[in-house]
Amino acid sequence: MSHAVSVSHGEFGRATIYRLDRPIINHAHREGHIVYNIGGPAATMTVADSEVPCTATTATAISPWEPHSWNGSPEGEVVSLTLYIKPMWFLENSASAEYALKFGRSAITVTPVIDDLVKRLTAHLLEDEEHNGFDDLLFALTKESFEQTWHAAPQGSLNTACQRFSDFRVRRSLRLMEDRMTEDVDMEGIARSVGLSRPHFFKLFKQQMGVTPNIYLNTLRAEQAIEDLLTTDKSVTDIAHDLGFSSQASFTRFFSSNVGIAPSEYRRVAHCSSTAFPMIGQAGRLSGMPVSGVRN
Q1: pLDDT band at 118, cuts 50/70/90?
Q2: 231 domain residue, yes or no
Q3: Which pTM value belongs to this model?
Q4: Choice between 92 and 118, residue whose per-residue pLDDT is larger
Q5: Are residues 173 and 253 in the same domain?
């Protein structure tokens, strides 16, 4: 069974150390996502439709809303350092809007600078109970890795992120799903509400968002679950009920499949700083405008 060693939420993202011994199903995050292999055999991930190595020398980058799965390694358990970076960071730190919300490529070469930052952040998560300096290390590692993905990025890899949300029917469906995520959502009903047939809705949604409506809805529910685990005293059973699950067992299976570990374990190891962004809400929405205060 996979386990979390450490989880820390900070100013613009979070970092986790996982011990992974089984695959994780295809899913997505609204955050940018970077996975470093810090122990164990070479592993792979599937990002969109491509298999990407996750080894001591190659990390894996996943753009916001890019579908991906953890394949792991047949040789045994892998220890990973995994980053989840808020889209607002991309908007603030990309050289142009064309690069916002996307990595240049999925494979990151682990340079000596990146390797040093990985080791420093890992030690920080394992040893510093107060997590002072966490945000600075997370920022430095993200920036170095992000820029590395644009070195010799494949021609034509400039993103389609700016085209996302351009269709008013998709934008309306996003709001409807956020409003109804605690219910048994009928995707055919969502499609009718925005004036589309179910097949046309699924096709347009995938074109605009890069993921299916069902994966998007699962992401919303997983984010709400993490927010509740970190910021409320609700029991896991109550969180499951509030999110519309029929039982704690079904919620635990859902959370484990989409996050990688059980909700009770996530709550046990997670640390949330006073500067941490909420998982959901306006600060986490892709529709928000960039804010001032960009680090250099």
Answers
A1: very high
A2: yes
A3: 0.80
A4: 118
A5: yes
